[in-house]
Design goal:
516 residues; elongated
């Protein structure tokens, strides 16, 4: 969302161009040529090649401090920060007046290392030496921002916005970020609009526009009340024999699909009330109503009510969430299930491209239809990575593992374990359509159970392919199409060598959702 890396690169290049003293005529000409070649490679971001050439130059002219200075700069670009600091400090100690600009590079290195305290000290010294360099105030402002010292960062960004028209849009962008961090959305939007009015270069303009969109979306999420309504049309070519487990998204029951197809229509209503709703903390209550009605197989009809309490806490880079609730299900016009659940979760997002989600789902299922009550446990670990491509678009890759354990409280049903491996990706699409491709593989292992086979423990092997396409119709309405293909087989065979639990299933789902 920011352009820190680009700015740091420009700062380092400017330091090399304007503050390296001119070569004296007595320097070694071969070393000078190697130095020029090193600068050329550095300019093309080939830092290892640049280091090789500067090392050769230093061997021929070991007393030239400019070569050693440049070597420290290259080491910093290679992220060999400790070596860079050692080299730069050594050069500055030998010529504190002629090499005083090294203080800027040392500040940049400490900033890159996220050592805010040392970066601040060195930027203060650099500003004292070069008070007419607005870019140094900008760099120090970024350090203060990373240290959550918002008043200091705002003072530096304000100075830059007034002192240098070329950096004004960049400074306004970061002033907006300061306002956003302070939860002042109105001021953040005003500053972004001021930055856009200055017609900055394309990438900064895109960042400003995306930031504005994110703030407007977050403003909606910050409302004390939120409502989401969904209408669903679905075709299932092999409807499950277990309507509750299938429609409610519960877990494999052990019975095959019933080899019948049908259409269903349904929908849901979600209402969310936030008692506390800040960037760092959310505390609230939600109610969800769900309904599914089949055209012919009405024994699969489902009604459900769910009440959930939730608490979210954000302490970057960690996100903690905890929710718990009560769900009540009707299937085929009969009371079927009261479900109690507790869901702790943790997300680790070390940067803007990677995140790791860990979620536990602890359930107690009170089976109101007379079948065995169940304790059920789910653990999920999913990794996401964003690949940046042309025009600022992103491909999000995911991969994960889910483990489940189902423990019926009497012997009317078997215990089972489920192991699921899943991967997928979300792609940028044309004309606002966003496609997603997912693949899952599941292994379900049941305890020995005579209804399956008196001598062999049953195992199910399942592949699932899903294709999802979403399209935002308006700021509040979204359309989604989803196709899932499931292929399942088991290790159980009848006397005629037939797998009684083998099935294939295709489900087509059309959804329209509105959020208000």
């Amino acid at each position: 969302m920011t352009k820190h890396a680009l700015f740091m690169t420009v700062a380092i290049v400017l330091s090399c161009v304007f503050f390296l003293p001119q070569m004296v005529s007595a320097e070694n000409q071969e070393a000078k040529q190697l130095f020029s070649r090193s600068q050329f490679e550095f300019g093309d971001d080939r830092y290892q090649e640049a280091l090789n050439f500067i090392d050769q130059a230093i061997k021929l002219d070991q007393v030239n401090l400019n070569y050693q200075h440049f070597r420290g700069t290259i080491l910093a670009r290679l992220k060999r920060y400790n070596e860079a600091i050692q080299v730069l400090r050594s050069v500055m100690a030998k010529d504190p007046v002629g090499q005083q600009a090294i203080i800027i590079e040392l500040a940049n290195v400490y900033a890159a290392m996220k050592d805010g305290a040392n970066a601040e000290i060195h930027y203060i010294k650099a500003i004292q030496l070069f008070p007419n360099r607005p870019d140094l105030y900008l760099s120090r402002g970024l350090v203060y921002l990373s240290m959550n010292q918002y008043d200091r960062s705002e003072a530096d960004f304000r100075h830059v916005a007034k002192a240098d028209p070329k950096l004004a849009a960049f400074a306004l962008y970061h002033l907006a970020l300061v306002s956003y961090k302070k939860d002042d959305f109105g001021q953040a939007k005003e500053r972004l609009e001021q930055a856009v009015a200055l017609q900055p270069e394309k990438s900064l303009l895109q960042n400003c526009q995306q930031f504005l969109a994110n703030i407007k979306a977050e403003e909606k999420m910050r409302k004390p009340f939120r409502f989401v309504t969904t209408v669903k049309l679905q075709y299932d070519d092999n409807v499950s024999n277990q309507p509750l487990e299938s429609a409610a998204g519960l877990l494999p029951s052990g019975l095959p699909a019933q080899d019948q197809s049908d259409w269903s229509i349904g929908g849901s209503f979600l209402g969310v009330f936030n008692l506390v709703n800040t960037r760092k903390t959310q505390l609230g209550l939600s109610y969800n109503f769900l309904a599914d009605y089949y055209e012919h197989l009405d024994e699969n009809n489902l009604l459900a009510h769910a009440i959930t309490l939730f608490y979210y806490r954000h302490a970057e880079p960690m996100y903690f969430r905890l929710s718990g609730g009560y769900n009540y299900y009707y299937a085929d016009n009969e009371e079927k299930l009261a479900l109690y659940n507790l869901n702790p979760g943790l997300t680790w997002a070390p940067n803007n491209y990677d995140r790791l989600d860990f979620l536990l789902n602890l359930q107690y299922r009170d089976m109101l239809d007379g079948t065995s009550d169940v304790n059920h446990y789910i653990g999920t670990l999913t990794y996401y990575h964003d690949f940046k491509i042309d025009k600022g678009e992103t491909i999000t890759f995911r991969a994960g593992l889910q483990v489940e354990y189902d423990d019926p409280l009497n012997d009317t049903a078997p215990d089972y374990n489920l192991y699921e491996f899943q991967t997928g990706a979300t792609f940028p699409g044309l004309f606002g359509f966003v496609p997603d491709l997912g693949v899952k593989y599941e292994l379900v292992r049941y305890d020995l159970f005579t209804a399956f086979d008196p001598t062999v423990e049953r195992k199910d092997y399942r592949w699932e392919l899903s294709i999802r396409v979403t399209k935002r119709i308006t700021s509040n309405l979204q359309f989604m199409f989803l196709w899932t293909r499931t292929d399942s087989k088991s290790n159980i065979k009848t006397a005629s060598n037939v797998d009684p639990y083998k099935f294939n299933r295709n489900v087509l789902t059309f959804l329209v959702s509105g959020a208000f």
